[in-house]
Amino acid sequence: MYGTVMRYRLKPGSETAALALSDELAADPPLGFVAAYTYRLDPSGDEFITASVWTDRDTYVRSSSRERQQRWIERVHELLIDDPQTSDGEVIHSVNVRRGNH
Asked: Residue 86: pLDDT band by 50, 70, 90 thresholds?
């Protein structure tokens, strides 16, 4: 798997719109999109990190260069105070705990 981690600050009042964009992506996911996790960082409240996961690097690169994905990214950037810090890389480990009803 492959992905990107983005650290950013949202314009005041735009958190709901940013989360809606994430939901929009998940409702009609691009090829290779697996998951995304967004964190609101303590204690600032206006700083976030989103980690997105894709099936592999090649699919991620192809998808991110498509016009549809570029338009979506532009919409995200409209909600940001300044340029985000981003890092791409291979996912080398994940742990998921699934609990049954107890």
From this structure: very high
CATH architecture of 2-90: 2-Layer Sandwich (3.30)
Query: Does residue 45 come out as left (phi exceeding 0), alpha (psi in the -120 to 50 range) or beta?
Result: left
Answer whether 50's CB lies under 8 Å from 86's CB: no
Tell me how far apart the alpha carbons of residues 72 and 25 are, in angstroms, rounded to a whole number.
8
Q: Classify residue 13 by burial, with Cβ atoms within 10 Å: 0-12, 13-18, 19+.
A: exposed
Question: What 3-state class would DSSP assign to 79?
Answer: coil
pLDDT at 45: 81
Note whether 1 and 54 are within 8 A (CB).
yes
Q: Does pTM surpass 0.90?
A: no
pLDDT at residue 102 above 70?
Answer: no
